[in-house]
Structures are given as structure tokens and as C-alpha cells.
Amino acid sequence: MFSRLRSDVQCILDRDPAARSTWEVLTCYPGLHALVLHRRAHWFWIHDLRWLGRFVSHLSRWITGIEIHPGARIGERVFFDHAMGVVVGETAEIGDGCTIYQGVTLGGTSLYKGAKRHPTLGRDVVVGAGAKVLGGFTVGDGAKVGSNAVVTKPVPPGATAVGNPARIIEAADDAKREAAASKMGFSAYGVTHNDDPLSLAMRGLIDNAALQEHQIALLWKAVASLAEARSAINCVPADAAQGESFEAERLTQLVGK
Fold it and tell me: Can you give the pTM of this predicted structure?
């Protein structure tokens, strides 16, 4: 018991730069308190002391603001960072080394008793603040779930899920997208951290279209100037756009800054 507690404390010291000492972690980290109480509640649960397990879980929720059903299975070195408002369902499973931030829900979409209704998180999964992972599927090892994402389908190992409904960004595809995006004058790397990939792609297309219209207008102006300087017949079509009418700023506001 004490060796596991030492492991829990050390993982917090390793992952949270605000943690300054073992004593501070032991006394001031509700995520650690919720884990300790959950282990006792889970022991009661698997030994058919169901009411006692639920009561300990209820006390833990009241003390820490973190609700973990006593039936949930939680691995080692799991870190509930801040974690106020976290809800973990009965059949949820959390693998070793996971990090879960505040407001996360590991919930179910089925009402059938005894069924696997809640998600399984693999090893070293990170679930961002406010994310909702709903259903009896698996989030693969090393995957990331972005803040406020709503995930209702499996996430492959190493991938990132962002948005509502969540879109899956494969690790290899993410690297290729970053390389291609850099050639267009914007970087998509921040997509996996704090942005919606669809909105970011739309902003990139808008910027690219605005640049093309600007260049076309400059070309027609140059052609008109050359024709006038040489007293040549006007070779510029009457409908040639020598001004810019593309409302890039307005469209950018519509898709979100």
C-alpha cells in the first residue's frame, strides 16, 4: 500500500511543476485523495460490500469534487490534475500513467446493466479539460483527447482526438499535415493543442484565396499599365477584376479566430 502511495506521489511530482514537496502533495492534492479513497471503495465493491463501496465513493466526491464509481478500474501512476468535476463511470478502465484534467467525463451511452458501457483508456493517455469520452470503446496507448472534445468512437494508439464531435488525427498524418501547412504560410501544429482542425484548415484556405486574388489584381493592373504606355489596343477584358473584393476578414470571423 505504501509503495503504491509513494509511486502516486512521485508521479505527481514528476508531472506537475507546481508540486514542491511530498508533504504538499499528500495534504493538498485532491486527485491523490480521490485515488486513495477509490482503492478502498473498489475493494469493498469487488468483495460484494456494494453499499459500503458506494458510500466511500460518495464521501470521496463530497471531499474532493471527483466522482469515481467504486466499480471503475484504475491503474498505477494515474494523475488527476486539478480534477474538480471529473466523473468516472462504473465500467470505465484507466490504464497506467494516464493524466486526466478537470471536468472530464468517462461516461456511458447504454442503459443495459452488466454491459461494458464506459470507455477503456490505455497506458499514458492524456484527457484534456472538459473532454467527454462516451461509450464502451478503447482509447489506445499514448493517445490524447483535446480539451472539450466529445469522443464517441475508438481512438487509435498515439492519435489525437479533437473537436465536437471529435475528429481523429493520426500521429503520422499530423506530421505530414504540419509539413504541408508550413508551405502555405501557416502552421497546423497547434491543432493538437488548442484549436479545431476544420476551422484552422478553413482559415488557411481563406488566406490562400485572398493572396491569389491580390496577385491576380496586381497582374491585371500591370497589363493595363503596359497597354496604356505603348498606346496599344486595350487588351484588358472589361470584366477583369483590378480591385479586390474577397472578404477574407469577414469569412475568417465566421469560422472563428
Answer: 0.66
